[in-house]
Amino acid sequence: MKRHDHTVLVLQGGGALGAYQAGVYEGMTERGIAPDWVTGVSIGAINGALIAGNPPERRLKRLREFWDLVSSGIPLTGGLAQFDPLRVGLNRFSSLAAAMFGVPGFFSPRLPPPIFAPNGSPGALSLYDTSPLRETLNELVDFDLLNQRKGVRLSVGAVQVATGNSVYFDSRDGEIKAEHIIASGSLPPGFPAVTIDGKQYWDGGIVSNSPLWYVLDDGLDISALIVQVDLFSARGELPENLDQVQERAKDIQYSSKTRFNTKRGQELENMRQALDRLLKKIPPELHQDADYKMLQQRIGRKRQITIAHLINRRFGHSTHSKDYEFSRATVRQLWEAGLEDVRRTCAHADWAKALIPVDGLRIYDLTR
């Protein structure tokens, strides 16, 4: 059976919710689905570096080490039921602890606080110090391996502070270091901007929290199975209290119009194919025309893209602070949810169809 030429893993940002992506990756390894390109924003960039920056046999181990480390501050596993009000209280306590004391191996609060630091100094520009994350990445990611350009390609999204432009650091085009990964997750005002080659960068999720468009724009002639893993769901139930209002607003904001973007991508691909058919009808004497050449170059060859869409769904005990709720209980539950969603997707009758490349762009959301 013919397969796609590439397998791309697209990872959205979402802080603590990124444990869901780790579970998805475990499910992919169970099924022998190995990405050759990972692109991510924020926590997606961190998970992506742990995958691309390690040999296949060590990737899952490194992911577990990272998520065990960042969830060690609140190591309670508890026997609380998923919808038990006590679990909501635990989650709120966990997120409050992260805000006050930081997260092991990730970030720590600035002392003294920013209000006591001189304007323009590093201590005045963020609430937390991300030096612990640098140490963690240098320990768990083999950047020499990542930059050999023989293994998994890694692309991480950031935004340039001075211009507001979205920027992707890509191992295909240049060297990736810990600072590039940290820049992708430097969400202000919590985390400081990262200076790279004299320019400052913040979290790429400020502009777009999903790197799908980078893949579609870059791969004009790609044949790929794209596994897109989103941490915020654009669809959700109507809120019933103020906490749920804040949570729902955050879901909408950071879902980055996921379904709109994938459907829009499908529409543009259909238009691209229609333009290709139209150009073939142009008389040969016009083939040297500058406009004809530009359009032909833009079209490339026919693309064969299948997007398998996996979306983290909110738990009954979720709160608006779920993206910085790093308790061991929640991290493990998110990991298991991602693993189960991959298993459910691969067991679906349409999954076999998704693996066979056809011209155009198809979208599958088989866990709904």
Layout of SSEs?
Elements: E1 6-11, H1 19-30, E2 37-41, H2 43-52, H3 56-70, H4 85-101, E3 108-109, E4 128-129, H5 131-140, H6 143-146, E5 153-160, E6 166-170, H7 178-184, E7 194-196, E8 199-203, H8 212-218, E9 223-230, H9 242-254, H10 258-279, H11 290-299, E10 304-311, H12 328-347, H13 351-354, E11 360-364
Parallel strand pairs: 1-2, 1-9, 2-5, 9-10, 10-11
Antiparallel strand pairs: 3-4, 5-6, 5-8, 7-8
Helix pairs in contact: 1-3, 1-12, 2-3, 10-11
Written description of the protein model:
- The two termini are 27 Å apart.
- Helices cover 41% and strands 15% of the residues.
- 40% of the residues are buried.
- The chain is built from 13 helices and eleven strands.
- It is globular, with a radius of gyration of 21 Å.
- The model has no long low-confidence stretch (mean pLDDT 90).
- By secondary structure, the chain is α/β, with parallel strands linked by helices.
